[in-house]
Q: What sequence folds into this?
């Protein structure tokens, strides 16, 4: 065991702070550690799919707890909440949770007759052109049609940033459309051209948008394409300038598919692939294979998917690459998806010394992350655990539930390959897994939902780990009570479905405090 090259955590603090002793029980009956309000909100926010039921918590109860926590923080530290909401939307990729946090934070402050920060809170949550309508739809459903000034102005600020011709083509749908947003919030256009776009969006909403202003070139080009007779449309794919013509008209692959009708052939895909966004490419790998897209085109897709800069800009969560890998029938995507996954896990550190990585494979980890997803918390845990183990100098990777077992992970192997070796293991006997596998490691990392069994040798699942050895819990569910204390020099809790907070581990081990990631 190392004598000198050991983590130095004395005095280092982390942001997620709990009480030193248990105050309740986990859902499985072990003593549970409550966190302070900001810590509980943060842990819940980074895993909260609004309106979705989790294994232990009903959707309505979970949503209500989230709203309550947001309201408490909004009354006491709106600047912190604005930073959290912006980070939650931009870095953690949690769209719905950001919208709800902004709306509920503003309402709590208005009820408390507090001003300042409310407009910024709304603006911080809105990063895509459909999100102003999403926030207003949520507000109408919760609080009625009347809009307070901070909501109007915050949404208006976002509209000025986000509304353009291509946004109108792609995102003008739902119950609250672009024209509705504009009539409800009255934003001042940033340019005369945007002013014409605003007027056209309102006209279109009321069924009188047939005449497109001359300044809106993309919308005019689209209108010309849509006017082509159905029998002449597929011939467009054979033109050498087809990709440019479609791109100039803002035709997404979805709209083009509906416009053409009939089967989506290799010619169709090869025409639209150059203009497809990153996430659209990732979601359609199976369709490309089924249509017979050529290897030459597939190589260009692979290069785009694996490009680290594109990965960073896309903000795609690591688990999406696992989903794409499982869905794609052809092995030609395996290597680019692995490279893309590696790039999406750029914040996972290469830990020195010996690391014990424990991955929770209990039944509660296997519920879907959302009703529209086949991915589970168990998938996320396997991805993060495998990535940590493969990057560490020396790691023992272990899966646990009611039983526990090592997971082979050799240097140079793919995360996607290692993930395929995990199994489902029933209950959550965290303490037994720690006791069985801790052998003087320099640190312990547990990826879990923290809903541990009480065990037969005491409640603390980390009792077998000496106090001087740092132990990190990566929480993937955001339940109220955790399996151990957090915030002190040797015990820390992080959370989320992205890699963002992994960067805190090296900071703590350098003896530095690691605050909120925003």
A:
């Amino acid at each position: 065991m190392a004598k000198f090259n050991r983590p130095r955590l004395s005095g280092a603090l982390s942001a997620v702070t709990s009480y030193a002793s248990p105050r309740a029980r986990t859902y499985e009956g072990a003593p549970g550690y409550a966190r302070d309000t900001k810590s509980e909100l943060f842990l819940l926010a980074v895993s909260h799919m609004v309106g979705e039921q989790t294994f232990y918590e009903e959707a309505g109860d979970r949503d209500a707890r989230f709203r309550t926590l947001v309201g408490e923080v909004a009354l006491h530290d709106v600047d912190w909440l604005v930073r959290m909401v912006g980070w939650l939307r931009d870095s953690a990729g949690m769209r719905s949770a950001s919208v709800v946090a902004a709306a509920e934070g503003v309402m709590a402050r208005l009820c408390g007759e507090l001003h300042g920060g409310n407009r910024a809170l709304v603006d911080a949550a809105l990063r895509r052109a459909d999100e102003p309508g999403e926030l207003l739809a949520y507000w109408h459903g919760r609080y009625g049609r009347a809009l307070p000034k901070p909501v109007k102005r915050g949404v208006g600020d976002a509209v000025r940033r986000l509304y353009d011709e291509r946004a109108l083509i792609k995102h003008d749908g739902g119950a609250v459309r672009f024209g509705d947003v504009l009539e409800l919030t009255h934003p001042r256009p940033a340019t005369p051209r945007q002013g014409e776009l605003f007027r056209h969006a309102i006209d279109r909403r009321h069924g009188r948008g047939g005449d497109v202003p001359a300044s809106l070139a993309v919308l005019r080009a689209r209108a010309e394409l849509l006017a082509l007779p159905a029998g002449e449309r597929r011939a467009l794919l054979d033109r050498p300038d087809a990709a440019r013509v479609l791109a100039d008209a803002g035709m997404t692959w979805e709209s083009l598919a509906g416009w053409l009708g009939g089967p989506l052939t290799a010619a169709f895909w090869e025409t639209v692939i150059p203009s497809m966004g990153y996430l659209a490419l990732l979601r359609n790998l199976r369709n490309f294979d089924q249509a017979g897209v050529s290897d030459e085109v597939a190589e260009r897709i692979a290069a785009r998917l694996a490009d680290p800069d594109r990965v960073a800009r896309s903000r795609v969560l690591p688990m999406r690459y696992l989903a794409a890998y499982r869905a794609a029938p052809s092995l030609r995507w395996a290597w680019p998806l692995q490279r893309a996954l590696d790039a999406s896990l750029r914040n996972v550190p290469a830990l020195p010394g010996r690391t014990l990585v424990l991955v929770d494979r209990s039944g509660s980890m296997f519920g879907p992350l959302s009703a529209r997803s086949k991915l589970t918390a168990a998938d996320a845990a396997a991805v993060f655990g495998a990535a940590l183990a493969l990057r560490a100098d020396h790691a023992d990777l272990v899966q646990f539930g009611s039983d526990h077992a090592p997971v082979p992970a050799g240097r140079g192997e793919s995360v996607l390959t290692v993930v395929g070796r995990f199994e489902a293991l029933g209950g959550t006997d965290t303490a037994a897994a720690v006791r069985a596998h801790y052998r003087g490691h320099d640190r312990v990392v547990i990826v879990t939902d923290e809903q541990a069994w009480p065990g037969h040798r005491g409640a603390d699942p980390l009792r077998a780990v000496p106090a001087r050895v740092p132990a990190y819990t990566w929480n993937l569910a955001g339940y109220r009570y955790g399996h151990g204390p957090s915030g002190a020099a040797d015990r820390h809790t992080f959370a989320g479905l992205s890699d963002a907070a992994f960067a805190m581990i090296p900071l703590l081990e350098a003896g530095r405090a690691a605050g909120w990631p925003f």
The longest strand covers residues 354-360. The beta strands are 24-25, 31-32, 354-360, 394-400, 404-406, 443-448, 471-475, 491-495. The domain at 348-509 is CATH 3.40.50.410 (Rossmann fold).
